[in-house]
Amino acid sequence: MEEEELECPNSTSEKRYFPESLDSSDGDEEGVLACEDLELNPFDGLPYSSRYYKLLKEREELPIWKEKYSFMENLLQNQIVIISGDAKCGKSSQVPQWCAEYCLSVHYQHGGVVCTQVRKQTAVQLALRVADEMDVNIGHEVGYVIPFENCCTSETILRYCTDDMLQREMMSSPFLGSYGVVILDDVHESSIATDVLLGLLKDVLLARPELKLIINCSPLLVSKLSSYYGNVPLIEVKNKHPVEVVYLSGAQKDSFQSILRLIFEIHHSGEEGDIVVFLTCEQDIGKAYEIVCQEGSNLNPDLGELVVVPLYPREKCALFKPMDETEKKCQVYPRRVVLTTSSGESLIWSNTVRFVIDVGVERRRVYNPRIRANSLVTQPISQSQAEIRKQILGASSSGKLFCLYTEEFASKDMRPLKPAEMQEANLTSMVLFMKRIDIAGLGHCDFMNRPAPESLMQALEDLDYLAALDNDGNLSEFGIIMSEFPLDPQLSKSILASCEFDCVDEMLTIAAMVTAPSCFLHLPHGAEEAAMTCWETFLHPEGDHFTLINIYKAYQDTSLNSTSEHCVEKWCHDHFLNSSALRMADVIRAELLEIIKRIELPYAEPAFGSKENNLNIKKALLSGYFMQIARDVDGSGNYLMLTHKQVAQLHPLSGYSITKKMPEWVLFHQFSISENNYIRVTSAISPELFMQLAPQYYFTNLPPSESKDILQQVVDHLSPISTIKKEQKMCEKCPETTEQRCTLQ
């Protein structure tokens, strides 16, 4: 099948592609009889194509294939099966197909198959590959569901989805009645959603004895899973592959220069094969990209072209496409150098990789519930991550792994498993979901990786501040509506508040833009001044949230007035904007609008640009983000957080940084403690507006500070009328409880 034939169809019409040898369009009877003798695909009733048999031979060479009989036998006799194997053994693509065969054999009486993935790129890639191997149409018999994109129909037999999407499905279908087999893949990634699913499925399996659960994991997690689920069958897949590991003991001191030196040494050696480089963080990707591109342009052309592929986090993997005809005609194939971080570990599937360079450390986000902020922490990768990076070379006839650390470092400083996200992330969204699922009686979850009590308490406190909980600590009606949105609870609260303040249209745009990847392109060296000049045309004096609306509206106008997608792409490129991010924002906004209409929330006509509308947008933002306020303490752009004593600066891409006009008080969307301590996406607010919209008991609980004293003076000087209104609003809140009533009608 050609690449475009694998895209998710927009219509329900099906189209199958056959090799020319099967074309009987001339009406010849022998051709008809020949077709009747062809083996039919049981999933769609159509004859198999020649490509199916070609791919079948490749599948039979996978290490997992020899375990098929053992797996099918265990699947029939047991409710839970654990499969342990390396990253390249084929378990993610073959096991779901075997489960689909099982569901077919019982006539789908218990449902179809769902296979979860931690990363959306992996879910899409696997669905495309498996649809090709099963010789069926993507979006019909095999499909995928990822955030804000559903490529399935009601007839889909096998669907790949991100773990958070299956978790959300449990809000409407707690017992997952549409599925006969649930496959949790890459459990060793330890995402929050996977941990939640592992716990909830314990109860679901008891309620549905016919449901099957398959768990795919790395060998290092087997003992922990076995003790968690009890004595369940284990299938171990052995995948021996020749990989030469080279430890470079002195490279840790100057790992960046060591990486660059290795890339060029490999290229000069003349050995064939692509190179994958695992760097510490996203900033290193950009830095390495510029240097390798610059140095690569001066290399001897007889060595072949050096193509640098930066694979940033959150970007779709367009990696390792088949060589085009021009490349095939080259006597020396171009060598690709892929620059990525830990997020790229499961995205690299090419058989052309012969070299992996591993720096051995990564930058992780670790959430601190005391200050409600992430810290960017550089720490060693885990032993399981190191093994996965080694396995990228598993499909090669031979490969070489360069470790920029010592064997002693690997054994002593690296943990066996990657830290569970449950123990390092903000749990507010997870707690909101668990409160919602408790309505169905599944809220008492036994987590394999238990969250820190402090993080749980902070999450409950935040939901209380956001009026998502009632007097008894259960979800309020407001909280139930908030859980309908696939967003951070603070953003959901702002959207609901916008219904009261008649600015839903504008708030949906802001929500879509901050949820999608950044709309600003990664700037090549020397392009900063030109980019800033372009971006200045979008700046809005009220703040970055308003600037995002301007950018989205300009993109929409360009899309409506352009004759082709190419024109829109060119417009984005000319303005240094990320076209794929803006397309994603468009999709996100459409889904949010659909939710607004489905639950029948009020929707006012857009009025962006008026003074009243600007004020209303700030009111809606403050209703959700009153916990993310900072004040410029010295007039030079040093912003002190209201909730703690961290000082931060505005991000360089903030409109205020560009115009050099620093407001005293700002509301910000994101803050991470790192080398630069930037606050991102900021808009100016007044202390009077903050005091009108922040819950009184939140203000009371703030730690003593100069900023709090200033706010108290604002309260003391409020007019009697406004004070009465404030008290009337707060009297709906019982003094002995911590419930704030929803003011939406």
- Which word captures the global form? globular
Looking at CATH, which topology of the largest domain would you report? Answer: Rossmann fold
How many domains in all? 4
Query: Order of strands side by side in the largest beta sheet?
Result: 4-3-5-2-6-7-1-8
Unreliable residue runs: 1-35, 315-331, 721-745
Evaluate the radius of gyration: 28 Å
Mean pLDDT: 86
What's the helical proportion of residues? 40-55%
**What is the terminal-to-terminal distance?**
53 Å
Q: Any idea what the CATH superfamily of the largest domain is called?
A: P-loop containing nucleotide triphosphate hydrolases
Beta-strand content: 15-25%
Most strands sheet: 8 strands, mixed
Count of individual helical segments: 28
Q: What is the tally of beta strands?
A: 21
CATH architecture of the largest domain: 3-Layer(aba) Sandwich
Pfam families: HA2_C, OB_NTP_bind, WHD_HA2
Subcellular location: Mitochondrion; Nucleus
Protein name: Putative pre-mRNA-splicing factor ATP-dependent RNA helicase DHX32
Keywords: Acetylation, ATP-binding, Helicase, Hydrolase, Mitochondrion, Nucleotide-binding, Nucleus
Description:
It is a single chain. By secondary structure, this protein is of the alpha/beta class. The chain folds into four domains: about 50-235, Rossmann fold, CATH 3.40.50; about 245-315 and about 330-420, 3-Layer(aba) Sandwich (Rossmann fold); about 440-605, Four Helix Bundle (Hemerythrin (Met), subunit A), CATH 1.20.120; about 625-715, no CATH class. It is about 40% helix and about 15% strand. It is built from 28 helices and 21 strands. The strands form three sheets. It has an eight-stranded mixed beta sheet with strand order 4-3-5-2-6-7-1-8, sandwiched between helices. A six-stranded parallel beta sheet has the order 9-16-13-10-12-11, with helices on both faces. A five-stranded mixed β-barrel has the order 17-18-19-21-20. Helix 14 (about 430-435) crosses helix 15 (about 455-465) and helix 17 (about 490-500) packs antiparallel against helix 23. It starts with about 30 loop residues before the first helix and ends in a 15-residue tail after the last helix. One of its GO terms (molecular function) is RNA binding. One of its GO terms (cellular component) is spliceosomal complex. Belongs to the DEAD box helicase family. DEAH subfamily. This is Putative pre-mRNA-splicing factor ATP-dependent RNA helicase DHX32.
